[in-house]
Amino acid sequence: MSLIVTLARMEALASGRSQPLATVRHRHLSERPMVFVPLTTAGEAGAPLGALLGTDRAEPRLLVVPQPRNRDLRFAFLAELAARLLPHLESALDDVEHEQHGDEESELCADAPQLLVPNQPGVEFVRLLGRSMRFRRTAQDDPDAPHPVPTQVPLLGRWLTHYGERSRVPGSALLLSMTELLGRHWATGQSQLEDQHLGALLGWVAASDRDVEARDPAGQLRWPPAGPATDPAFDNHLLAPAVERYDADVPGAERQVRELIAGQLRPAWEDMWDGVELLRALPEGRRVGERWKRDRYSYTHHRDRVRAGEPPQPRRDDAVTAAAKLASREQAQARLDAQEALDDPLAMAARRLTGEAFAGEVVEVTPAWSEGKRPRPRPLVTVRSTDLPYLAVGGRAHRELPDGGRQSAELAAAPESGLFLLRLVSGMGRGKEPAPGSVPAAGDRVCWTLFEHSPRGGPGLPDPEDTPWTHGGPPVLGGEADSEASGGTGTTGGAEPHGRRLPAAREAAATDPAAGQADTAPDRVTTEDYL
Amino acid sequence: MTAARSSTAVRSAPSDNTSARLRERLTALRGGPDVPSRPMDARALAALAANPGCDRRALLDGAGVDKGALATALGAPAAFGQSQFAFVRGNAFEARVKAEGGAELIRLLCARTGETPPEAGQVSVPDLTADGPAGRTARTGIALREAPVGGWTLLDHPMLSLRIAGSPAWLEPDAVAVHPDGSWSVVEIKSFPILDGGADPAKVGAAARQAAVYALALEECLAEPPPDMPTEPDAPRAVRDSALLVCPVDFSNLPTSALIDLRKQRAATRRQLSRLTRVSEIAERVPEGTSFDPTGQSAMQLSASVDTVPAAYAPECLASCELAFHCRSQARATGAVTTLGRAVRGELGGLTTVETVLAAANDTGHETPDGAESAESAGSGDTGGSTEPNTEVGGEDQRADPAAAALRRAASLRAEALRQGPSTVTAPTPADETPGAGEACR
């Protein structure tokens, strides 16, 4: 947390309401986002309990699993979820634009559906749902498969996996959590840990007085958490008895379970839309559209993979894919940091405080030219600034021109403290005289950054075929199953993780014959897979 | 090697006299001998290591005070509890793993260590029932030593003791396995899944810390043979460096396992526990006659008693300490900066309250680098481009607190940015970059 954010939190604490952390909205917000508030069953992995979803605040759709340990009820939930979510996720497939890259023309979906969940665990739950659904077998895949599911279920699993994976790219907006969105734009007077509670966070931002920890005389939270985990007191005193009544076939028991779950979800649903409205009130940052375009590309690419009949995403990325993902995320992070700073003076202020940028007034401009056959303009600009950039003579600085172009300069000298003599080296057109407006005049306010405005990643990674085996390629190890698994996804055998893995489990992947099988095989099914 | 190290596991026990006095003192703090001591379980011990600087927690836990009841009496009840859904599943999973007389569990262990699994019915599961925790601990100690070398033994829910600040804490691991070579392994059975070979790092970390506490208790058991077993049988006993973690695999209820290395966790926990000996020092500072017994005391009196011991509140406490809500409201009342997070403290130097931080940030007595304007007068006019020379590096500010100087800079930059509002340069040309196909995330 930077000092400026800390200070904002202190001000929020002192004033009793949130303080702005941004002057613009840094994430794309769709016209019609799909808001998805899921609940999960405590102790079970990926056993949904219910969900509220929809694109219209007035018409949430409630899905409930009245007995989460019943496999058929869970599958029915997933089928209904697919029937509700897929039309939204597939709503933008066919409205395309054409983009020209040199000689190549590519299709780009004009929009992409957006998914909003309450918090970071909600994002993780979307990933988990995707993982649990994408390997399910349908009756068409395998007529003998136990518990076949409708074709929509594995398809939704693939979409949710894609959205979950995309959400790990900094600055992406296909799948966003409301706590993260609000937390990026407002500072509250509580810790980041407490900000994970959407109700508490919104209490600060919307300046509504609410005590999210208060309980009624029966011990129930007056402001239930926004999922996916439920409050243990709710589970033990309300939900469990209701589920028992359902098991005993008591009339009306199912309706009661539905009401209980709706009661837990409803406050989060309202909070989600309040959050959307608060965010809509902020003007969108100028470079948000450019980042959203990358999301649209991501959406289009996934569409193409599904249409090409590629198998679902593998359980684990191979080393080459993982390295490529990491590199692109690092680049996305650097790009996001730069773009946010350029879009938003508050973000720039944080960079100025850390010596990565400086702003000041131009006090003198001296025309000058480079030597050589065709002299180019190299004017010297003296800037007075009270900032303390980490800039040494010969170091580069960059600024944005009034027309949106970019200009670089190098520090020629720092005659005295607070004075910077910069030699402009680019962004002045092709002629001998600098293009109009490309050289600041005395009295102008300018802001220079020490970071690149559109940072590029390092040298690209080699193709999988040229990657040495020490780094995961080419596919020589493993049996025939491994090469089959690679399919059209460009994956290779010898899977290596990129997340945290337990060493023993890694050994298992090498020794256990079952683990060596195609990475897209369905999960093992046991007669009573839930306890 | 482990045996050699175990001698340092617990600091040389204080002399009987001091330890008896401390026990007496702690009993009085708890509210007298009639108030049952709340045993420290491994979870509490592991959580203790998470906030070692908190005197309040160290003393209350050391004295065996029921912090949950105390928090309720203080009007700030803890929000802990386990959902019965999770509870039922956890128990069912553990029963399943321990089925077949422990054979399944030993198979899982062998699959990880590379040892040969025993034939069916060849795992001995000694009966550990005895009266009271001390009896069960003694029984466990004997069973651990009597386990035949060359065969497998599984102790189901043994009882171990760990001497903490002079008084024993009773611990009950899920299981302890005795290998054919005579060494001991801690087994932790958890109901969170290992999905595609990976598990939630936070949960694995918590399980490792818990297992480390059990391993320390085993070391203590190794170092102190039960009195009625004077000579150690010739078996080379040792506590293994890794514990077996058993979890459901993927979305099923089938068990899978992984070895987790405990060396680091064990060293960390050992250090934290040895520091707990300072409980006696903390107890010395509490006035005579103080009691933390909720019965017969008003919330006000209790609060005053609790206040005699300083706390080190951090938001992380909310997840692990029953008293966290009380400490938080106190920390908020005093305006402590740690209510916003531990990391905040690092940047603020000696400024520990929100009030002093804001005062330092808006201090108009100093020349701020951006002119004499402070954040207070934001909006009253543009002060940008001040002609004041930078005093930041000058001699005048050298005496000043660098944290305060940084705060002043932060406040003026923030005020300036808020005045300025969104930057208004024309939109950048979209053609300057074309998103490549390769970076689209799969």
TrEMBL record, chain A:
In this chain, the stretch annotated as Disordered covers 451-531
For bias type Low complexity, the affected ranges are: 505-520
- Compositionally skewed regions (Basic and acidic residues) per UniProt: 521-531
The name under which this protein is listed is Uncharacterized protein
- Native species: Streptomyces oceani
